[in-house]
Design a protein that fits this description.
The protein has 236 residues and is an alpha+beta fold. The protein has six helices and 14 strands. A hairpin with a 4-residue loop joins strand 2 and strand 3. The structure holds cytidine-5'-monophosphate. Cytidine-5'-monophosphate (C5P) binds next to strand 9, helix 2, strand 12 and strand 14. One of its GO terms (cellular component) is cytosol.
């Protein structure tokens, strides 16, 4: 498989075409962004750490019967993925209140959500990723109700696999964001699952081990990602 032209450059990843029409290459850069791209920094090794972390998690999900975009690692910072038609919404499940939920609803950070909540956000930096619901998604033709139901089912299925995985490593999976796409009419988990797109706290100390370290200027960002990886059995 040969890497070809750049197809799309996101805030932290670049997508390349390949000589195979149904395959793409995801290149994980060291760029780290927050606040809709307002804060951007280069963090040494982050591309490599996230690429390998994502591959490890996606393999766990595949083993649990959840179809993902990931095919194989291509290099330290690149992986080969199936080409998907991405649905332009983000699916967020929260086990514990944090981040925008705390700001929006005035609840206390750390409140356990029973049952966990589900939210859709429109992927649109210029509009600051507004929250949308099923009606917006069907009315604007971003997905069918059947696809919406399947995105919800799969996002919660990911919780069933990853909550215990992180728990075994002494961590709480606070929340996470997933994106899905279509391949031959089938809904498949795309994008990434890394500490850039989820919140993880140490179970005992509640120390933040995810991208909130970058957002809040707490330091040791990549070091924390490496520690998370180690605690779930991935040595980086
Ligand atoms: O900011 P908020 O609390 O809504 O984020 C919920 C979860 O989704 C967090 O884990 C955050 O890292 C992730 N997220 C993301 N990309 C976004 C928005 C949120 O990965 N554009």
């Amino acid at each position: 498989m040969q890497k070809r032209d750049e197809l799309y450059r996101g805030k932290a990843k670049t997508v390349f075409l390949t000589d195979e029409a149904d395959k793409l290459v995801l290149y994980f850069r060291n760029d780290t962004s927050a606040f809709d791209g307002e804060k951007i920094e280069q963090l040494e090794r982050k591309g490599e750490v996230n690429n390998k972390f994502n591959h490890f998690i996606m393999q766990k999900l595949e083993a649990a019967g959840i179809k993902t975009q990931v095919e194989s690692l291509l290099s330290d910072t690149e992986c080969v993925v199936k080409k998907l038609n991405m649905i332009p919404v983000e699916c967020v499940v929260r086990n514990i209140a944090a981040g925008s939920m705390v700001r929006r609803l005035g609840v206390e950070e750390g409140l356990v959500l029973d049952p966990p909540t589900f939210e859709f956000f429109l992927k649109n930096d210029a509009l600051h990723d507004p929250m949308v619901n099923d009606y917006h998604i069907t009315a604007f033709g971003w997905a069918t109700q059947e696809q919406i139901d399947e995105m919800k089912r799969l996002t919660f299925a990911v919780n069933d696999v990853l909550k215990p995985l992180f728990e075994k490593g002494g961590m709480l999976l606070v929340d996470y964001k997933l994106e899905f796409g279509l391949c031959n009419g089938e809904l498949i988990l795309g994008d990434e699952f890394t500490p850039d797109g989820c919140r993880l706290w140490d179970k005992e100390t509640r120390k933040k081990l995810d991208k909130d370290r970058f957002r809040q200027g707490l330091g040791s960002v990549v070091e924390s990602y490496i520690e998370v990886a180690k605690r779930i059995g991935l040595d980086l």
